[in-house]
Design a protein that fits this description.
This protein has about 625 residues and is mainly α. It is built from 17 helices and no strands. The termini are far apart.
Amino acid sequence: MRRLGRGGPLDGQTAPPKVRIAFIDIGRGLAALLVFYSHIAEQWVAKREVGPTPGIDFIDALTSDPMHMGLQGIGQIAVPFFFLVSGFVVTPIALRQGQRRFGLNRLVRVYIPMTFVVLLTAAVILLGAQTLIGAEEPTITWWTVVTNSLVINYLIVPQVVMVGVAWTLVVEVVFYLLLVALLPVMRRWTWLAIGVQLTFVFVVMMSAREFGASWALFAVNVSYLPIPIIGQIIWATTSKRVPLWLGGLYVGIAWSLYVLADFLKLGRLDTSYNLALAFALLFFMAGYFAESRLKERRIWIALSERSYSIYLLHGLVAFVTLDLMRPAVPLLLAIPLAVALTFGVVELSYRYVEKPSHALARKLSRKPAPEPEPEPELEAEADELEDDDLDEFEDEFDDVEDAEWPAESDEPDEPAPVRETPTEVLRPVRLRTPPPQRTPPRTPPQGTPLQRTPPPRTPPRGLPVNGAPRRGVPAPGTPPRGLPVNGTPAPGTPPRGTPVNGSPVNGSPVNGSANGTPPRAPANGSPVPGTPPRGTPAQRTPVRPPPRPAPPRPAPPPVEDATQYLPAAVWPVEEPEADEAPPPRRRRLREDDGPAVTVASLLANHAKENGHHR
C-alpha cells in the first residue's frame, strides 16, 4: 500500500519516507495542465473565437510571449519535459525487467488506452463533431482506425490523423524499440549503448530524404529522440554508470543533434523548439536537485497518475463541449464547464481503462514462477510487489503512477532466495565455585601426635619460599644437624650419643645410651623395628614437639549454587539429557579415617617402643 505524505509531521512523530519521486509527479501534473491550456487557448480560442479574450491574452502576455512561444503556447515546454522523464525512469525499468517483459509491458500500457481514445474519437467524428485533429478532416475506415490505434499512421503517406496529440507516442515507441534492441549492451557497457543510439539518430537524420516519403516521416520522429536520450544520460551519470565528463560530452552531442534537426527542416514549425528544450531541461534539473526538499501531496500524485488520460482526452472532450456551448454560453463560463467535463471523462477512463491496462501489463510481464522452495508463496508475493513497485516508473504516456526512484540496474533479475538457518540454543554453563582452601580440623586418635595439614599450594618444609629459605628450616641439600660438613663437625654440635638439650628424648636414649653405653638388646633376640643394622653409624634426628591443637573452627556455610544469580535468559532450567555425560565431580581433598603418617610420628612411635621394651 502506498504511503502518501500529507505535509509536515505532527508533534512527536516523524515524517513517513517518500515512496515517489516528487519532482516528477509535480512536473508531469503541471505539464499535462499546460498542454491542456495551450490547446484550448491557441487551437480553439485563437482559431474559432471572434470576440476579444482578455483573460487568455493576459496569460499569454505573461508566459508565451516573453518565452517566444506565441505560435504553440507555453505548453510547448511540456513535451520535451515528458521526453526527459521517459528516458530517466524507463531505462532502469528496462534493465530490471529484461527485453521480453519490458516489451510486453510497454505494448499493453501504450496501446490499450490509445485504442479506447481512437474508437471514441471515431464515434464522435461520425456524429459530425470536430476534435483536435490534424490538418484535414479524417476519413473514418477500419484501416484508419487500426493504423491510428497502433500509431503507425504517422509513418504512412498520406497521413490520416484522428488524435492530434498522438505524434509523441511514435517517438516513445521508437525509443522503446531502440532500447530493447540495445538492452544487452546497455546492461554491460552503458556508455557504448548511449553512443550507438546517438550514432543511429545522426545516420537517420542525415539520410532523411534518401529513401522516400515514409523514411522522411520516420526521420522526423527520430529527430526527437535526443531528448529522451538526454534523460537517459542524466540517469546514467547520476547512477555512476557513466563518468561525469563523458555524460557532459554526451549531453552536448545530443543537444547538437536536436539543433541540427532545425537546420534540416525536419518537422519544425518555428524556431521555438530549441528554446523549449532549454527551459524543459532547466526545470528538470532544478526539480532533481530540489527533490530532498519536496514532499508528497495527493493533488500532485493524482494529476501525475492521470496525465496520460488528460493528454489523450482533452482535445476530444473539451473541443466538442466548447463547440456545443458556444456562442450560447459566455466564454468565461463555457471554458470552466468544458474543463470540468473533461476531468470527469478522464476519471472514468483512468478507473476503467487505464488502471486495468496497468494490471494486465503487470500480469503479462510478470516473472515466471520459481522452482518450489520451502516458502514459495512468500517469494512469489515479494517478487510481485517488487515488480509492481518498479512498474510505477513510466513515461509521460505509458504510466501515470511513477512513485519510486528507479532501482539500480545492476541488480540480478532473480535474487537468490534467502534460506533461514535454524537457531541453535546453546546449553547453559553452570558456574562452579572453587573448593575451600582449608578443611575442618580432625581429631586424631589418642596417643597420636597431632599434625596440621598444610593448606593447598604450600611448599613442603625445607623448600625456599619465593627464592629464600624459611627461617629455622634448613635449605634443601643441607646435611642434618650433627653431621660433619666437608669432614668437619659443625661448631656447637654435641658429640655422637649426647642427648639433645641435655636430656634424652622421652626419657630414652636414641640409637644408644648416654656416655657410650651400648644399647640394650631387644627382647627374644629380635631387633626393634626401625633400628639400623649393627655396624651402621647412628644418626640422631631431632623430634619436633607436637604442635598445639588448633581450636575448633565453625563449619563453613554451604556453598550456594552460583547459577541462581544468573538471569532466566542466560540460565534456563533444563533436565540433563540421557545420552549426555555426567558433569565431572569436584575434586576433593583426600580424607582418611586413620592418622597421618609422617617422619615425626614414626620417630615418636619408635621411641615409645624402645622405652616400652627397655
